[in-house]
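Can't paste images in this forum, so I'm doing it all in text. The chain is below; anyone willing to post the predicted structure tokens underneath?
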Amino acid sequence: MPSKLGQQMNHLIRGQQQEATTGQSKATKIHNLYKQGLQQIRGTRNIHPDAQRVEIARLYTPTRQSLTKVKTDQAKTDQATFTKLERQLWGYDLERATAGDRASIDHTIRDAQDRAAKLTKADHATKALAQAEQAGDSILARAIAKRAHDMDWDDVLHDYLASRPQAAEKYQQAGAIWQRYNDTGAHMQDSMQYVVHKPDELRGLDDKAIQSMVDPEDSAA
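Text version of the structure:
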């Protein structure tokens, strides 16, 4: 995806806050439960420091594992959603077309894509899109919009999406997914939500040592 997509179509949705993903919402809940559990353990009176450390390890380990799983699941969901959105934005649904109609439509699509591919300047694309819209040629209009998307011609893409609110919403959703995985700042911010920092009680211990505290029998095996 071009970097322009990662800009969230700011010219259309400037100032709009992104909604939290399911994974981010789950991560927030996990973090809150972890903080509550940590406070309870630390607030327990008459507990030996070693026993306290074990209890914290038993809280920390599954928390980290849960966050990792949530992140992995969200990535799979995002990939599937992104593929679906791209297909809805730029693909063509020919399932209901007859064999004869499909052949004719395929030819029309290829012709539209060839014509769009020959556009080398944004102003030419703007004019071609306006002509396609006026003629009611939705296939050519979509092909030109896809060309504008690939070439980062924002104004052309804006013209296409301005009259198609559903497509604009799908484009924004795809942009949000693309940004989470391709924009350095957004990716770091998103990734940090799935990280649990090691508590002071476990400082200096590696993962193997912490796991041995959680399950001594498995560590000894």
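The two ends are 48 Å apart (CA to CA). DSSP finds twelve helices and no strands in the chain.
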